[in-house]
Amino acid sequence: MNVKLAIGVAGTVACLAGAALSLQAHHAFNAEFDANKPVSFSGTVTKVEWINPHVWMHMDVQMPNGKTENWGFEAGTPSVLFRRGFTKASLVPGTKVKVDGYQAKDGTRRANGRDLTFPDGKKLFMGSSGTGAPYELARPGVDTERK
Amino acid sequence: MAGMLRGSTIVTALVAAALGAGAAALTMRGGEQAARPAGARTAEGRPDFSGVWQAMNEAHWDLQAHEARPAIVTQPGVYEYEYARVPAAPVLALGAAGGVPGSMGVVQGDGQIPYKPEALAVKQENAANWIDRDPELKCYLPGIPRAMYMPYPFAIVQGTDKIQMTFAFSNAARVIHMNKVEGPPDDTYMGHSVGRWEGDTLVVDVTNFNGKNWLDRAGNYHSDALHLVERFTAISQDAIRYDVTIDDPKTFTRQWSISMPLYRRLEPNATVLDYNCIEFAEEFMYGNLRKEPLVKHWEGETMIVDITRKIPPGEKLHEWYRR
Amino acid sequence: MRRRIFEALGFAVVMTVLAAFVQSAASGQAPAAGGAAGSTTSGNAKAGPPPHTPWGQPDLQGIWLDEFDTPFERPAQYADKEFFTEDERKARDEKTAADAGRNERANRGTAQDVAGAYNAVFTSAKPTGRRTSLVVDPSNGRIPPLTPEAQERNRIDQEFRLALLQNTPTCKNQAAGCRGGKYGPPSPRLNDMAPFYNTQRMNRHNGPEDQSMGDRCMLGTTPDFNGFRRIVQGPNVIAIGIDTGQGQGYQRIVYLGGSHPPKSVHLRHGDSRGRFEGQTLVVETTNFSPKFPYRGAGENLTLVERFTRLDAKTLEYSATMTDATLWTAPWTVKQELTMQSDEQNRIYYEPRCHEGNYGLPSLLVGARLDDKAFREGKGPNPASRDTATCVNELPAEREN
Prior knowledge:
The complex is a heterotrimer of chains A (147), B (323) and C (400).
Chain A: H1 3-6, H2 29-32, E1 33-49, E2 56-62, E3 68-74, H3 78-84, E4 96-104, E5 110-117
Chain B: H1 9-20, E1 51-55, E2 74-75, E3 86-87, H2 117-128, H3 130-133, H4 146-149, E4 154-158, E5 162-167, E6 173-177, E7 192-198, E8 201-207, E9 227-236, E10 239-247, E11 256-264, H5 277-280, H6 282-286, E12 297-299, E13 304-306, H7 315-322
Parallel strand pairs in B: 6-7
Antiparallel strand pairs in B: 1-4, 1-11, 2-3, 4-5, 5-6, 7-8, 8-9, 9-10, 10-11, 12-13
Chain C: E1 62-65, H1 86-98, H2 111-116, E2 135-137, H3 148-165, H4 169-172, E3 228-233, E4 237-243, E5 250-255, E6 271-277, E7 280-286, E8 302-311, E9 314-322, E10 331-340, H5 359-375
Parallel strand pairs in C: 5-6
Antiparallel strand pairs in C: 1-3, 1-10, 2-10, 3-4, 4-5, 6-7, 7-8, 8-9, 9-10
């Protein structure tokens, strides 16, 4: 068994080997982003594209050399957030966000937002901003603050 | 052109007669299951626009009046005159099948689109860079009003509190809310449509556009400030007069409007067949990113076409897909 | 056809798999007033009688959703048991709620961590329904066996996919994604044409056709049991708009008259003709396309669906799939759909997956750079890396 798999991979990996139905709705992030190019930034949101299949967040990031660069971060699909009551007004330009992720293989200023949090560490979009989708199971630590 | 049909009492009476009386005589698609003949009124007495429809004009090429053109992409010919331009390389092999038909135009009033000066420059750049910029070529959702007059059929399903239009082009759709709903959580390609009846006219307010669409193939475009007011009025049970008032203070100096008939597809068994162009557009959109080029070379009797692809550097590649 | 294989790797936290497109279903409550187990918004005695349109048809309009998570096929351990006990449902819900999902990170700098992609807040979790499976016929809750021809096609197809994985750690470590395969040098089949029209992810990115349908934003197929369905109904034609997956939604038109196109006409979601039989809308759909197979069924698929409005808030939906070239018998799925709030308008019906698919060109460019690095001796052979299977990724949770 792959030792790396044994550490930290969340629980059961249910392998949907070749299931006909698109059980892998999102694309292969490993083909797009480079595990050898981790990035970790704090920045200010300039624009959010609430698009499918993935939200793209654009941020002005202060680099170590003092210059400001604008980066794009690929996140998840907005559909679930919308149903919970989030809208495009939920993350407005000017908001400060921390991103932990991996840069695109082509070296452009794009990365995946593996972990998106506010500067205080609270995960982005946790908790619904409206009445939410009433049928959903709330997951502590995912959808709400962990008890 | 449309002036003669503007809500005159006589016309209204004729329309009412046509809708109310003759509907049953129409040949229906497999009518044995139909609960109501096509074109009849609803229980509330409204016109019923359900059916398969299509515009029949040249608006999708260019909303404004124009003479026929040799091609959608042209280059200078032997002479310097504008009228002597010739098809350019991307479309040369199509010969006369690649030309642009002429049109009396659908823009009302003086026929001009009242661009702000900087917006007009963008329109002209759009036209000059049609292949790289027109979202239609990428099979992106066409937006409203463009979807209404693209040369593909669409179905109107008139329900009790919603009217849905489903378009053949890329399976696009719009839902006109006749009841109260919240706005969408983000801006959209196809707009957010809210409708109401004014007598026999369906009036629709369309807002919440993301500004990514064009209005035609000539580079006419709008911003995310676009607000449309559409009016659907039956000319007969097989034709609708479709009027649109276009308001976009970021792009135009004033409101302007277009108008055209929409025609019912009358053949028995009229069906909207998909035009699922995402796959059709893949070679165009991603062929330059293949490991081995796929579409490279074509040879006819008088012409050889060789295609070389290129990859825009860095972020420019990604910007190309955003348009 | 492929079957899903759930595999516990024995870690402390056991995750319930919430696959993005699992055709999971509803509670399948008996259609009677008063069976109100489960969510407060599901059909209940107070919901009122089923309404009719002004022209006298049963009114099917609204936004409908299966609010429960139900395994598509009955897991083996439940054998003939049709319903979960309340304790079993609670236990499943507890597992789901306790699971951190994508928030749990693998080691930084590993492919597994990249594959985690984004925070779990972008995925959703539904409560467990009453039924042990969505499939209600055959009575064992499982799809009938595949025909020998179909099994052979699958074998050939799987052999090819495994060949593409041959040189990867997935096969070296005999991980689940390599089951049936072996480890070895890069396969000589690496640049072969896929044996059949590819719809799944594979460990190669030579062009868009090597990507899964989801990657190409062409994923939504009919039937769909997972998504939100908006039904707009006229007397002669009905529109069904489906919002499913990551913007993979699509539109169907059901004509209440007319006839199917000629067999040679293949449509992504088939051609649907419906009629009311009593209070039930029966829809027959044919003319499906080999390019958009449903679980492997393409142009030979016949789909018969039944829509019955049980009460003001509940729509019973069943779908029978027949394809004698693929399945040895027809099979049927049944689910109960609950009316969603129309006024909230948060079900984002505009799919716009293709319009936002920046990931696809990015992925292809990445693959070209990997090719280039390898050619110049600056990087590993792309064939030695697995960018396809689930072992290399966290499970695909429900993203709709």
